Amino acid sequence: MAGSLDKYQEVPEQQPDAFVSTINPVNDAFYTILNTTAKVRIISMNTVVTWATTQPTLLTIKVTIDGNTHQYYTTNPVSTTNYYAQTRPQLGANSGALVAVVNTQNFLLEGRNVKIEVSVRWAVTQPTPLDCRVKWAKW
User: Fold this and answer.
1) What's the CA gap between 39 and 41, in Å, rounded?
2) I need a labelling partner for 11 at 20 to 30 A (CA). Which of 26, 83, 111, 129 fits?
3) Within-domain flag for 1
4) Looking at the DSSP assignment, which residues form a beta bridge with residue 47?
5) 23: domain range?
């Protein structure tokens, strides 16, 4: 009997951070941070965009879990400010916010198949770094 109970006590194993840095992000293009991976627990996600001339109008992290899309976003992000994903049920189904405060949630989401991407929307495309980091674990 003890062996059959062990599978329910399995603890996810922390993985190296998934990270993407794009020097010249294309307007509204999504960049993959974590390609589709099985049995994932997302611990935290943060993104930062640095701009000099034209402020972006939307910064988005998109998470696809078992075929369902969740979006975390902020409008008019401040240059060089870290934005952290935070679940906000009041924003509607599968929506969350990117906020400029450290995330205090233990974990955000988990699923059998998970993909994470980041995007920025510009009025005028300019040379600007876009970075995104995901802390995650795997069963």
Assistant:
1) 7
2) 83
3) no
4) 83, 132
5) 12-138
